[in-house]
Amino acid sequence: MRSIMKKSLFYIILLLLVKANSINAQLPAPFNAILPSIQDSIAKKVLASPNAYRLQLVYTQIDRDQNGIPHFTNHALYADAENYFNPASMVKMPLAFLALEKLYELNQPGVNKYTTMQFDSNYQRQVAMIADSSAQNKKPSIAHFIKRAFLISENDPYNRLYQFVGQGPTNQKLLAKGYSSTKITRQFMGYTEDQNRHTNGVRFMDEKGLPILKLAPQYNKDSFQFGAPILIGDAHWNSKDEVVKAPFDFTRHNNISLIDMQKMLQSVVFPASVPTQNRFNMTEADRLFLLQFLSQYPSETNYPKYDSTHFYDSYVKFFFQDSTHAMPKHIRVFNKVGWAYGFLTDVSYVLDTKNNIDYMLSATIYVNSDGVVNDSKYDEEAVGFPFLNQIGKAFYQYELERPRKFKPVLKNQVKQYEKRNPKDTRPSIFNADN
Known about the structure:
This protein has helices at residues 2-26, 31-34, 41-48, 92-106, 142-151, 155-165, 167-176, 193-197, 258-269, 284-295, 380-401, and strands at residues 56-64, 70-77, 116-119, 198-199, 202-205, 211-215, 218-219, 231-232, 235-237, 243-244, 248-249, 331-340, 343-352, 357-366, 372-373. It is α+β, with helices and mostly antiparallel strands. The chain has one domain (24-401): 3-Layer(aba) Sandwich (Beta-lactamase).
């Protein structure tokens, strides 16, 4: 009997090993050299069932030639524009880029990212805005909206950037730039489709409080081609706080593919590496401003003054988010993350100026084991965040060991980051809608 049990156990172990090896064998290079190195049980479970977790990965190797010019090699695993994931806060990134592009194209004397703005209320449920208590001068501006949208991913700054650019121009411009997967249809305001088509009138004000430029309210007349219904989950909570025994309909929600999002980030970090069509028009100063706040930490920032224990340095750096909540001093991550409805996404450019490596890594995962959407009960802490951290570690380690024909000496394009004033006694911001 004991001999039979030993044989059975042997065959079970053998079967599991064969299964694991077959999964690894199916992975294309270089994923087959990276992912099998992950020993974490949670991560291995996700990797064994990529469809169940709607997993997508995009990894870009960066190699410099003898002249220091970077060359990019893209690798994608399970990445499919037809495999929907909710981008959540990821949409804040293209809106920030487009807002600076609109300022550049307005080319209005006295109007720049630091100029005071005011928002009117011109349509149903619109909210006016004339002040921003988190800004040093207590006034709204494009620059401060971008800071808030990037540092801890606040929601209202996204709404204001959306209102400034407009729903129609947002989608028209992104489509013209070649980001064909993109549909940005809604603010984070609980608006109807009609209300999202209307955006507020905007005024830019001088230092004396007089208007420099007035922009009329916008209305998007364009139709959207949504395609096949996107239904996810087994049940969902509706707007009336009722449980509906049917999938949640994401068809008309915001949508951007992982590949398009990574290319958008690459177009700002390395503009010359993408075709002119894919780039955003802005000044070099504005581009460097974006890089600063894509990579600056809440603990370094004076305005807004976020509580650095709650909004710790790795708060929106999912690939480096572990129990220490700290970031290595020699690493900067230029990225944007999103999390909602059980979807977690990170699109990153990682720069290590000590070991002279850099690369791009993007991932999205769906963690909703109970199958109920919009109930705020997801497996983010148990599965999502640990998985993304393990993925981040694996790719970083691979990059440390990956041979390069020409070893570069890398420098950060951001010359200087802010430093929190230790004598600042103002209360820290602990709560924020993000």
